[in-house]
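Re: the pair you flagged

First of the two:
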Amino acid sequence: MAAMTYLQKHPKTGIYRFRRSIPPELRDRIGKGVQYVESLGTKDCKEAKRLLPAVAVRVQKEFDRALDGGAVDAALSS
């Protein structure tokens, strides 16, 4: 089974982005549909892979906090 990397290259711009499904129980609170997408701001695959873990950890922490009843970070809901 392949590892989930959450890395996607935008088909038109070529800029890499973080893309992850929002847990179903948070979709109404976050208000972004079913996916959270954040640009990594680079067209370089190696750089995107370097930046990805920090974004993944930050987003997971925000999901965990929201699941525990905490406030939803404005960056996730905007």
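Second of the two:
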Amino acid sequence: MYVHIYTGVALYLAWITCATAINVIVVLVYFQGMDMVTASWGGLIALNIFVLGWFVLETFILDQYLRYISFITTALCFD
């Protein structure tokens, strides 16, 4: 039962991270006047750095604490 709760909370946090990146891109384009392509690439690069950092943390450093959270890296890659 705890596996489902932990995975659900982690998926929610992953979605919130992606939605926040999208909102930052919208603010940069419409309120700061940045070019759409530049802001989009910046957002994608930031998300990729986050996903790679999370993969390293989850796999090597925090493995004993995050062992019961399944497929979060996969969900982040396909969001």
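The radius of gyration is 15 Å.

-B.
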